[in-house]
Specification:
elongated; 10 helices; single chain
Length: 180
C-alpha cells in the first residue's frame, strides 16, 4: 500500500506524517523485500512475519531463504528468534559473504557448530517425515474407503454386530470421519 502511494507521487514524509510514524520506518519498509528471493517472499506473503525476521533472510543465499521460509511456514513460527536460530544453524557456504554471523552472548563456537549439525539433521528428518506423511495419508484414506465398503455389506455388518458390537461402533465412527 505504501509502495503504491509512493508510485502515485506521495512522499515518504507525507506518509509518515499521515500515519504518525517515524519517516525512517516508512523508508525501511520500502526496501524490506530487497535481497530476498521471490519464492521465499511468495511463501511468506500472507504470513504474520516480522520485519526484523525478514531482514535476517538477507544474510542467507536464495536457496537457503526458500528453505527457511518453508520451515517457518511448516512450523507456523514467523518470529525473529526462529529466523535467527535458522541463520545460526545455516552453514557458512549458504550465507551471503560466506561468513558466519557472530553468535549470541553465552554461546561458544563449538555450541554453534553443534547447533548447525543438529539443524541439518532436524531439517533432513523433517523432510523425510513430511514425505512419509503424504504416503501414510494416502494409505489411510484407501483403508478408510475399503472399510466403508465392507460396512455396506449387510453380512459383514451383522457378523460384526453379533460378535464385536463395540468394535463395530468404533469402526463406524472412523469410517464416518470426513478427514483423517
Amino acid at each position: 500500500m505504501i509502495v503504491r502511494a509512493i508510485e502515485h507521487g506521495v512522499t515518504p514524509d507525507q506518509i509518515s506524517k499521515a500515519l504518525s510514524v517515524d519517516p525512517r520506518k516508512v523508508r525501511a519498509s520500502l526496501n524490506l523485500l530487497d535481497g530476498i528471493d521471490a519464492e521465499a517472499v511468495e511463501l511468506l506473503k500472507e504470513k504474520p512475519i516480522t520485519a526484523a525476521a525478514l531482514r535476517l533472510f538477507r544474510k542467507a543465499k536464495p536457496v537457503r531463504q526458500v528453505d527457511m521460509a518453508q520451515l517457518m511456514v511448516s512450523g507456523n513460527n514467523y518470529t525473529w528468534a526462529y529466523a535467527e536460530a535458522l541463520i545460526l544453524g545455516t552453514p557458512a557456504e549458504q550465507l551471503v559473504g560466506g561468513s558466519k554471523p557472530k553468535s549470541p552472548h553465552g554461546i561458544s563456537d563449538e555450541e554453534v557448530t553443534r547447533m548447525e549439525k543438529e539443524m541439518e539433521v532436524l531439517e533432513r528428518d523433517y523432510r523425510l517425515h513430511q514425505d512419509k506423511f503424504g504416503e501414510n495419508s494416502l494409505h489411510l484414506n484407501a483403508a478408510q474407503r475399503y472399510v466403508k465398503r465392507l460396512l455396506e455389506n449387510i453380512k459383514v455388518k451383522r457378523f460384526m454386530g453379533n460378535r464385536y458390537p463395540e468394535l463395530l461402533e468404533e469402526i463406524q465412527e472412523l469410517a464416518a470421519l470426513e478427514a483423517l
